[in-house]
Input
Amino acid sequence: HMPTAELQALDAAHHMHPFTHNNELEQKGARIITRAKGVTLTDSEGNHILDAMGGLWCVNIGYGRDELAEVAARQMRELPYYNTFFQTTHVPVIALSAKLAELAPGDLNQVFYAGSGSEANDTNIRMVRTYWAEMGQPERNVIISRKNAYHGSSIGSGSLGGMSGMHAQGGMPIPDIHHIDQPYWYAEGGDSDPEEFGLARARQLEEKIEELGAHHVAAFIAEPIQGAGGVIIPPDSYWPEIQRICNKYGVLLIADEVICGFGRTGNWFGSQTLNIRPDIMTIAKGLSSGYAPIGGSIVSDKIAEVMNDCEFNHGYTYSGHPVSCAVALENLRILEEEKIVERVAQDTGPYLQEKWRALADHPLVGEARIVGMMGSLALTPHKESRATFAADAGTAGYICRERCFANNLVMRHVGDRMIVSPPLVITKDEIDTLAERAWASLDQAAVKLKE
Ligand code: PLP
Output
């Protein structure tokens, strides 16, 4: 019950925030979120804020579901912790694994758990290299990823990621990770036809494999739709060509479903929406709707068969944590029984899409694209030429995000792209509010940009 200013001062003095210029917070003070219900956050000053980001793209079932709290409390009383190393297991991890095998497409039938998406992608790096070594091809150790991708913040997953700002700090990337260009037609496609551009960007994978030699390439990793890179929705031509190339060279395909998974794109997994057949899927975030930390890798029978034949010297204290597994299982039950994924595909999803696309009429917006419930706006000073705010990149996005925040709407900005990824339970009334506040914030940002 301390006053906000005192809490902010303590926060600035003792808490180092991720991805934040902490000295700026010292002057401004962080907004203190105290409660949340559905899609609405409440802050320490009593403001109600519409969270159009679902936290960090994760609170798929919305905030404040008592069922998850009850399951967690019950599990903590019964068995708060036990490990899954050295031939032991427990009921929550068994039940969750069986459920994930049922939901996952194709023959993705076994799960290796982690505490987060970053840890899961670290697992994937070691898993695919171990797979090829066990197959008698230890030199097949290169992983190809994409520029501007985000796959986590650990040194392994950050290396898979292609964000130059991250690579500039702390010694990344680790060796034998290569990056090709992203299928980002709006900013990089120039005068080309989007589908031709998509094909050309996919063919960079083939060129890279040829350059390195297929016998050196273990895997390609990508999100079905790049999220933190700015919700980059690829042209339709892109994924079929990537799939063809992976098949042709026997390169394993890792779909990072950390954002796209668990209903975000209108199917259980983004791989189903984009018609991809991955060998491994990375999962986290929506798996527990963020109520408990958990991540994992769901792997195909082909990989599991080889990996199960050796001892994989890898694992985390919290691999298959019983409380996280129980919470995740309850979250999946709610997603399934309340037909939340179907609503994204057929009801509230299309409604949000219509409202979102209408924002393209705003003078500041060059394109408004969305799949399921993940969307982006490209801010532009000149619609026709798809120009960007070159002088001080990110300024327009930053100003727009600030205006949203002042108007009690959380949207994220990635450079000059504005992002939404709301809880999947958002109602039509709340979608109207989201669209109204977004438009008003764009208006105010446009005025500020002219100043
Ligand atoms: N992969 C993707 C696609 C992500 O968006 C993220 C986080 O935003 C991660 C991996 C890393 O997950 P975590 O933050 O749980 O480590």
Notes: The pocket of pyridoxal-5'-phosphate is lined by residues 56, 116-118, 121, 150-152, 223, 227-228, 256, 258-259, 284, 295 (CB under 6 Å). Residues 60 and 308 are 33 Å apart (CA to CA).
